[in-house]
User: Which sequence fits this backbone?
């Protein structure tokens, strides 16, 4: 293996055509440089320069070696630049269920940024089915989503359990009740969350009780549902994780459906500052009664 300093000596002589000038350019004495060139020639088993009083010229072997020496030197310099550059942050691709409150995700991102973590995070909103498909194809590393029994292959980690509750304006006649009956809401207009993963169960529950809601809004925006409820124009049904104090969340008698929110991962669980913050935000809390 050729020492890097011998390549420097060789290139300096080849470029200046003079041992004295070459020695000055690499900051060594001429005898030191001459000894280095002699050692390089011994290691290569070939004479690299023709020397006389007037000039120093590359031999045919020296000319061939010059091409490779320049390439090796360039690669070496490139490696030094790469090592000196800041390391690229690791990237964690996280799929986020579109029915998880935006405020919760915002708080996680704010804390992650405050930590000045070396970890880069890429978030992707999606439906429950979309996130599982992307996880299966390796398009995301982890999904923050509803956990189902058939998700066992993704090593589910349940973080929270949330009841689905009726969302009422603060001045609604039933807002102070501990629970409400489906029949008591028959005259209210509903803001329908069309993207809700529990929509079939909710529709079935009300239909079985003879309640066919009239709608004031059909949307895929949770914030729009909450805005309608705050305005007093309608009511809705949402997981209790959306509770923010501006509206009233009241349980519906006999509606026992609970959603489990957690992490699904397709590969080996990565160490992640972001996921640690997610776990703290949800607090491993069991919100079911």
Assistant:
């Amino acid at each position: 293996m050729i020492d890097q300093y011998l390549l420097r000596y060789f290139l300096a002589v080849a470029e200046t055509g003079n041992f004295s000038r070459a020695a000055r350019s690499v900051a060594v004495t001429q005898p030191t440089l001459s000894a280095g060139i002699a050692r390089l020639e011994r290691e290569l088993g070939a004479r690299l320069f023709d020397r006389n009083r007037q000039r120093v010229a590359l031999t045919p072997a020296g000319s061939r070696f010059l091409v490779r020496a320049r390439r090796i030197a360039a690669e070496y310099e490139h490696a030094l630049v790469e090592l000196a550059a800041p390391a690229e942050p690791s990237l964690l691709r996280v799929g986020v269920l579109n029915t998880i409150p935006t405020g919760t995700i915002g708080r996680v991102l704010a804390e992650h940024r405050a930590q000045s973590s070396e970890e880069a995070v890429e978030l992707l909103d999606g439906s429950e089915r979309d996130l599982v498909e992307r996880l299966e194809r390796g398009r995301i590393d982890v999904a923050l989503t509803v956990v189902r029994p058939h998700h066992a292959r993704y090593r589910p980690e349940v973080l929270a359990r949330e009841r689905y509750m009726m969302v009422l304006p603060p001045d609604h006649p039933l807002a102070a009740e501990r629970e409400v009956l489906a029949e008591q809401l028959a005259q209210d207009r509903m803001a329908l969350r069309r993207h809700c993963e529990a929509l079939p169960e909710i529709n079935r529950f009300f239909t079985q009780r003879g309640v066919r809601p009239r709608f004031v809004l059909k949307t895929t925006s949770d914030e729009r549902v909450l805005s309608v409820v705050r305005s007093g124009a309608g009511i809705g049904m949402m997981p209790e994780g959306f509770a923010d104090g501006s509206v009233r969340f009241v349980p519906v008698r006999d509606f026992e459906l609970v959603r489990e929110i957690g992490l699904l991962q397709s590969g080996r669980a990565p160490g992640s500052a972001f996921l640690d913050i997610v776990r703290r935000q949800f607090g491993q809390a069991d919100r079911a009664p």
